[in-house]
Each structure stands twice: as C-alpha cells, then as structure tokens.
Amino acid sequence: MNDSAPHADQNYDAAYQDGFASTTATVDDQNTWSVLSHLGGLAGAVTSVPFGGCIAPLAIWLTQRHKGPAVEHHAREALNFQLTVSIIWASAILLTIVTLGLGVFVLIPLAIGGGIYVVVASIMAAITASNGEPVRYAANFNLVKPWRPTQL
Prior knowledge:
This protein is mainly α and 152 residues long. It is 61% helix and 0% strand.
C-alpha cells in the first residue's frame, strides 16, 4: 500500500469515506493516531485518575478526527470503551459506599479481572489499529456517536 496515498481501506464504507475526501491524512498518519488513541486511553486508565482513560482518546477525537475515517473510528471506539470502564468503576465504588463496605467483595474481583481486561483489550485494539483495520471492543456502551464531516 502506498503510504503517501489517502486512507482507502475497504473496511470503511465508501459513503463514510466521501466526507473525508478533502481532509484525509496518509495511511501512516491515520494508523499512528489510531494506535495512540487506544494506548493513550490505556495510559490514562493506569494512572487511576477518575475518567483519566478518557482524556487522550477525547483529545484525539476532538482534534484529529477530521484526518480520516480510521482516526475518527478508532478514537471514538477508544473513548467509548474508556467511558464504559469509568462508568463501571464509578458504579462499583458507589456500591461499596452504599453497602457500607460490603461492595468491596464485588470491587476487588472487578478490579483484578477488569484491570486485566482493559490492558489486554487496549493492546489488542492498538495492534488491530496499527494494521489499518476497524476494531470493536466486546463490552462497550456507544455513548459517542459517529461524526461525519460536513460538506462545504
């Protein structure tokens, strides 16, 4: 594949690509931003900052999504995944508080299993993104909807 050509992966439908025709970046640029959106979410989640995993994917989605359908798709998927994880964590912590500490029996296994899942799923998504393929996380709320560029 020619690295200087706009992203033309057949995995993204033609109607979706049409709106990006004047703003698409090279395949390498799109793959780089796509990988960074998944790994940036992982880095933020590891810091244990509430909703910290959402910062990098949100920043990439807001500032780089116009560069092509691959960047928009991967940044949105990473953002939705990190939002889903953050909502589940907040719910588990709230459960622990409301049950006066008994929720810790849910929180500890969730922290161990969920933490492993977040790391593995984020790395697998980054690898898939580096190959220029679309990715869907298995457990994901679609809170952020697809963005379509407007035709001027």
